[in-house]
Structures are given as C-alpha cells and as structure tokens.
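Dear H.,

Thanks for agreeing to be a second pair of eyes. The structure we're designing against is below in token form, covering all 475 positions.
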C-alpha cells in the first residue's frame, strides 16, 4: 500500500494533573478529516484513548473508499458512486475495488472469465446445507456455509501468498451468488439451481433464485439491470461495522473465508445490513399513511425502543447518496410495472413527514441505503428474508478488498482494543463451601472442595455439611 499520509501538524495533549505534555503527529490523507496518531499515548503517558463505538477513531489507513458524510459524497477508488452506478457494471466495480484501477477490455474479459469459472460450489456443500433446520433463515445458512468454504480450499489458504489472496477473492466473489440462492432454495425445500456461464452476474443470481426444472424462466432485463445497480451501490462503504469485523477477524491471520463469515454475522443486525428487512417489517407494521405520525412520535420517544428503520447513519449527516439513487430507481421500476403499491406510498409519506420534523432535522437523520432497497427487492420478487443476503453478496467484494489491503499493510498488527475497567477491585476467592455448597460434592473438573486453608474438605462424620465458617476436619 502507498503511504499517502502526510504529517504537517501536531497536536499536544496535556495531562492537567501532572503538567506532562505529549506532542502527537497529525496525518492528512487525500481527502477528509485529519487524524491524530495516538499510538504512543500508552507508552509515553500511561493512558489509553476512550472511544466506545469508534466515533472518533480511524482504525486504519485505506485507499479503497472515501465518504464525506456532510456533503453526501461516496467515492470508490476516487470515482463517484453516481458515475459508477450510471456507467459501470458490478463486475467492473469488483475489479476496481480489488485492483485499484478500472480494467482495460482485456483485463475485464480475463476477470469475468475467472469469476465465471469459479461459480460452482463443491457438491459436499449440499450435504452441509442439509444439516440446517428446514426453516433456517438464509442469513444463518450464509454465515455457516461461507465459513465452511475454507475447508474446501485448504491448499490455497496461505494468506501471505499474493496468488492465494487473489484466488480466494475470486472464489468468494464468484460463489457468493450460488450460495446465496442455494440458501433461499434450501429454506423453501427446493432443489438448488446450478450457475450458468451464459448469464452475467446479476442474471445468473436471478436465474438460480427463480428457475425450476418444470418451466422456463426468463430473466427480466429490468430486474437484472436494477439488481446490478444495487450491487454496485452496496459494494463497499469503508470501515463500517461488518468491514471492521472482517479486518479484526482477519488481523489474527484467520483465513479470508472465516473473516468474511464473521463480517456476514456483523452485517445481519438491524442496526446495520439487517435494516433493509426491518424497514419492510416497519412499513407493514405502520400499515397506512394515516398511522405515520403516531410512529414518528414513537421514534422520538426515548422510552420507546422503536426507531425509524432505514433512517440515520453514523457517517452521513446529509442524504445518503446511495439512498438518493435507489429512491429514483424504486420510483422508475415500481411506476413502470404499475406496482407503486401501499408500502411505497407509506415510505414516501414517512420520508416527507420525518424530513419536516424538528427532531430528525436537528439530528441530521436522513433515509439511508436500506430505506428504499427492500421495496425494489420486493418488486423483483425477492423475499424479505433474502434482503440482507443480497447486501452480503454485494458487500463481499468490499470485504475481500479491505481484507487484502489489511493483510498487505506494513502497519498491520492484530486488532486488540483496550478498555476502561470498572468492575470490582481485586478480591479473594471464597471456596464453594463458604457459599452454601454441599460437602462431598466435587466441583468443576472433578476437583474436591477445599476449605479456606486449602485443605480438602471431607465434610463431617455423617457426610453432612458443616456450619458456615467451620473449618475442615483436619483444621
Ligand atoms: N430513529 C429515531 N432516532 C434516531 C434514529 C432513528 N432511526 N437514528 C438515530 N436516532 C437518534 C438517536 O436516538 C440519537 O438521539 P439523541 O442525540 O437525542 O440521543 C441521535 O439520533 C444520534 O443517534 P445515534 O444512535 O447516536 O447514532 P449512531 O451513529 O450511533 O447510529 C444508526 C447510527 C445505528 C444507523 C442509527 O441511526 C439507527 O439505529 N438507525 C436505524 C437502523 C438503520 O437504518 N440502520 C442501517 C444503517 S445503514 C447501514 O448500516 C448499511
């Protein structure tokens, strides 16, 4: 990785209790907020920095994605998301994120060929899937199966070998749609559909989702086009919760399949990628536009756990640029198919009301990427339980590109945050018999109870428990 960070300024931290001052370097990247290098604080000042949720902490330097949350800007390798969504395709964006540059025609052909070659999964994975309950959520299948993939490729898991890194990246990008579609088919008790080389990435996924041996399925070009665009919009988003999880898991030098499986787990939660599923459930719960005001009031009430799903973002304090593009797509697609429908009407009205409300304006809470994406997925026939799976499929390239960058970063060390300990002060252990346990019982690992002098406690002559505070028979 190029070392693009430059040091022009410093920040001095003064310990007001002792007067000790520590000068810390400030780095400036290509764009964005400068960072203070606090790594020497512990060794020089005997203090850690405290930042739960990493609200002010840069965990790494990265060349991949840039977000300006105040301006609503998102760049992949310097290219604005709007241009990529309009003029590129998902596989080209994968190449860009992985290798840093847009591919030439030859490079793209080779890359597409490589990804197409790797779309099949080992037949053994079918047996693995059969171990899941028939009604398992497809995300739980995805977490398990992606983690298990590593066991099929143990000959190419030398994470320091550039060729092994590359082949793992290709395998993950290629196999993710196959596994995602198979997880859905399994949860419906239906046979998996094999990938077909004649299709592009999005078409192939739709075919594996919806075709049956019993009838001919034609991929709707509108559906594959909009899906490809959604995949681009979800491809990477710098150091979000799931990507940071991938980097943290990978920093222990775990294989990339294990690290990405950890990332899928982190994505699943409704505060992150699970929000697309939660938005639809929320819109269904609201039911009718006349109920919106009541739910908006609930979202503002701190004693009520209800939040407007698909609203707010740690980084964007402006309209999420991805949400802007998805909103336009949702409008176009749903209008074309004449299925604007009550959920979309409710979503538009909810957005209108929230964006006029002082609470949301003050906190700069705007619709995020997940607010409208579920409506599009739904209109192309994707069931709600698959929404987060689609997010994971799209984000796989971001995770693997960030993993590769982390592994090759000369500054990489195992990710290991520190803490402020606020638990009990050091104290002595009280033996079990002093806490009401019965004499003669063996404790964990077959160990005998001991009195506070460390002697084995046989109990009294009748094997009865002795009174509290009494010693053992030998004492
Ligand atoms: N509804 C109501 N109030 C909200 C919402 C919301 N969706 N989001 C934030 N707030 C409020 C908070 O209560 C807080 O208010 P306060 O200052 O009076 O205490 C303030 O706005 C700041 O919110 P935080 O929770 O501190 O912001 P944070 O950056 O930690 O959380 C998050 C961001 C998790 C996305 C949050 O906005 C949220 O839960 N949104 C709903 C879930 C969602 O849509 N997640 C998807 C995010 S996009 C993605 O991951 C792909």
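And this is the sequence the design step returned. I haven't edited it by hand at all.
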């Amino acid at each position: 990785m190029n070392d693009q960070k430059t040091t022009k300024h410093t920040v001095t931290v003064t310990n007001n209790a002792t007067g000790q001052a520590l000068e810390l370097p400030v780095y400036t990247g290509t764009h964005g907020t400068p960072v203070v290098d606090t790594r020497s604080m512990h060794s020089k000042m005997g203090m850690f920095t405290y930042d739960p949720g990493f609200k002010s902490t840069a965990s790494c330097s990265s060349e991949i994605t840039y977000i300006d949350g105040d301006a609503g800007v998102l760049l992949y390798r310097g290219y604005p998301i709007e241009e990529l969504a309009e003029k590129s395709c998902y596989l080209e964006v994968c190449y860009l994120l992985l290798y840093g540059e847009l591919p030439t025609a030859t490079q793209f052909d080779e890359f597409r060929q490589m990804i197409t070659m790797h779309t099949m999964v080992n037949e053994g994975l079918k047996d693995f899937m059969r171990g899941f309950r028939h009604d398992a959520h497809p995300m739980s299948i995805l977490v398990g199966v992606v983690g298990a993939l590593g066991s099929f490729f143990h000959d190419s898991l030398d994470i320091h070998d550039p060729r092994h890194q590359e082949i793992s990246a290709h395998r993950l990008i290629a196999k993710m749609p196959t596994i995602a579609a198979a997880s859905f088919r399994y949860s419906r008790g239906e046979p998996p559909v094999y990938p077909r080389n004649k299709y592009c990435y999005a078409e192939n996924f739709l075919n594996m989702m919806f075709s049956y041996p019993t009838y001919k399925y034609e991929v709707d070009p509108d559906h594959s086009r909009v899906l490809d665009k959604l995949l681009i919009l979800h491809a990477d988003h710098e150091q979000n919760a799931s990507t940071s999880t991938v980097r943290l898991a990978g920093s222990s030098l775990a294989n990339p399949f294990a690290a990405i499986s950890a990332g899928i787990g982190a994505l699943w939660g409704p505060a992150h990628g699970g929000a697309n599923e939660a938005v639809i459930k929320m819109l269904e719960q609201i039911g009718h536009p006349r109920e919106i005001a009541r739910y908006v009031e609930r979202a503002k009430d701190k004693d009520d756990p209800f939040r407007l799903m698909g609203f707010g973002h740690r980084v964007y304090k402006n309209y999420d640029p991805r949400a802007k593009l998805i909103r336009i797509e949702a409008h176009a697609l749903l209008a074309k198919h004449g299925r604007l429908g009550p959920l979309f009407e409710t979503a538009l009205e909810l957005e209108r009301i929230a964006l006029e409300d002082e609470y949301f304006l003050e906190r700069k809470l705007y619709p995020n990427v997940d607010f409208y994406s579920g409506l599009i997925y739904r209109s192309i026939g994707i069931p709600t339980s698959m929404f987060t799976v689609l997010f994971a499929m799209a984000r796989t390239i971001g995770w693997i590109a960030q993993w590769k960058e982390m592994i090759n970063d000369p500054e990489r060390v195992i990710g290991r945050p520190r803490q402020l300990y606020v638990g009990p002060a050091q104290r002595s252990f009280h033996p079990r018999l002093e806490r009401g346990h019965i004499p003669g019982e063996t404790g964990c690992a077959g160990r005998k109870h001991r009195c506070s002098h460390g002697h084995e406690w046989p109990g009294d002559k009748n094997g009865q428990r002795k009174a509290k505070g009494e010693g053992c028979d030998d004492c």
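Two observations from my side: The chain has a mean pLDDT of 91. Strands lie at 6-14, 21-28, 35-36, 65-68, 73-76, 79-80.

Warmly,
E.
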